[in-house]
Amino acid sequence: xxxxxxxxAISSPGGHxxxxxxxxxxxxxxxxxxxxxxxxxFKPKGQQKIYSIVDVSADDKWKLIPCALQVGxxxxxxxxxxxxxxxxxxxxxxxxxxxLFRIRTIWVDSIxxxxxxxxxxxxxxxxxxxxxxxxxxxxDQQQILFKGSVL
Length: 151
What we know:
Helix 2 crosses helix 3. The protein is built from four helices and seven strands, in the order E-H-E-E-H-E-H-E-H-E-E. It is of the alpha/beta class. The termini are far apart. It is about 30% helix and about 25% strand. The protein has a seven-stranded parallel beta sheet with strand order 3-2-1-4-5-6-7. Keywords: Endoplasmic reticulum, Membrane, Transmembrane, Transmembrane helix. This is Oligosaccharide biosynthesis protein Alg14 like. It holds the Pfam family Alg14.
């Protein structure tokens, strides 16, 4: 019997979360997914493990510290092999901590960012092990990859 990889999936609520759960739906059969998002209203389905974290944005940077402490705790407790995020600020926190803990990281920039990479994406572009855009014209096929869209 092979062991399933554990994936830590984290995003902001709203469109980021919708894209993340669509990505993870295809992974759940082969991987154990641990979710984190800043929304206590989301209810787990079946055996899903979901952590609630502090939301953070460019408007309330002071929340970066409590968010980082929560994400760090989850990473240490769950020991995922991979971090997957669709953004925004909570994903940045997770990607940066993931690099510190030597965890593989994947960033999927939001499909809403048609003209340019998101502000959060720019922060992690050189830090994420894999950086994906959902718009082919934003890809350089080296650092920023296009493999299709989620929606």
